[in-house]
């Protein structure tokens, strides 16, 4: 008679709190990123609904949390042993999306709080935090917190739309920054510095959504300008704005297949 195998029902690695502790020890940076992204989300909510905190304080805490996230991601993407004082390293540094958003936080640290400024970093933090939360829940067990799993699934299902909205916020923020500079809510150099951020996002190798959103906005503007009922002055203004943006756009590098 064959002996029974005591582990016959064991279909995977152990789950529960011990497995979570082991996961945290083995993935310290990823878990830290997850926690800081959750903090970014909470600070954004704290800015919109200042129940337990001052809204201005929550705004700058969200920017600092985004800066910390970007710095940790840069540490993962560019290890310390690869840092060097060379033009090649600087070019590589500014090719990283994390460098773009580290720069983003620095741009707005001395700017009057505005919800649109927090929108891109909130959406990126929400999307990435939701994705890693699923990893945490899987570590705890397949059936743990099904309500949280449902909410995470909804966020991931809308991931493409979330990235498009984040890209649109990056673009719409530029004329807002110009207006803020004119009325004294930020420095006069802020629009020029933010322009470089937008150009980096436009040429991003890992995230084409800003570039695609610019194309969609151009198509929408040209369709609107082609309508016969549109007044001539407004049509000319729209086409002039499209031409100005096209002149300011950097040449896009061929994207790898």
From TrEMBL:
Residues spanning the membrane: 31-52, 101-127, 172-197
Location of the protein in the cell: Membrane
One Gene Ontology CC term in the entry: endoplasmic reticulum
Domain of life: Eukaryota
Example of a GO biological process term: membrane organization
Pfam families registered for this protein in UniProt: TMEM33_Pom33
InterPro entries assigned to the protein according to its UniProt record, in alphabetical order: PER33/POM33_regulator, TMEM33/Pom33
Signal peptide: none
Keywords (A to Z) from UniProt: Membrane, Transmembrane, Transmembrane helix
Keyword Transmembrane helix found: yes
Membrane topology qualifier: Multi-pass membrane protein
Statement: the UniProt record of this protein carries the keyword Phosphoprotein: no
Family: Belongs to the PER33/POM33 family.
Protein name: (African queen) hypothetical protein
Species name: Danaus chrysippus (African queen)
Organism lineage: Eukaryota, Metazoa, Ecdysozoa, Arthropoda, Hexapoda
């Amino acid at each position: 008679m064959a002996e029974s195998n005591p582990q016959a029902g064991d279909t995977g690695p152990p789950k529960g709190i011990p497995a979570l502790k082991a996961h945290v020890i083995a993935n310290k940076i990823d878990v830290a990123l997850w926690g800081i992204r959750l903090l970014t989300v909470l600070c954004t909510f704290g800015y919109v609904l200042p129940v337990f905190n001052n809204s201005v304080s929550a705004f700058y805490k969200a920017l600092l949390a985004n800066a910390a996230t970007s710095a940790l991601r840069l540490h993962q993407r560019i290890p310390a042993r690869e840092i060097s004082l060379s033009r090649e390293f600087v070019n590589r540094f500014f090719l990283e999306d994390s460098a773009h958003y580290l720069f983003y936080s620095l741009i707005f640290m001395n700017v009057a709080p505005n919800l649109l400024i927090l929108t891109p970093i909130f959406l990126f933090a929400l999307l990435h935090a939701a994705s890693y939360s699923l990893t945490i829940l899987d570590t705890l067990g397949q059936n743990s917190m099904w309500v949280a799993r449902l909410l995470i699934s909804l966020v991931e299902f809308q991931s493409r739309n979330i990235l498009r909205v984040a890209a649109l916020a990056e673009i719409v923020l530029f004329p807002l920054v110009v207006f803020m500079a004119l009325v004294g809510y930020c420095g006069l150099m802020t629009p020029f510095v933010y322009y470089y951020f937008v150009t980096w996002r436009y040429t991003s190798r890992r995230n084409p959504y800003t570039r695609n959103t610019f194309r969609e906005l151009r198509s929408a503007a040209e369709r609107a300008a082609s309508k016969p009922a549109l007044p001539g002055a407004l049509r000319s203004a729209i086409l002039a704005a499209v031409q100005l943006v096209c002149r300011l756009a950097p040449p896009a590098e061929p994207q790898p297949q």
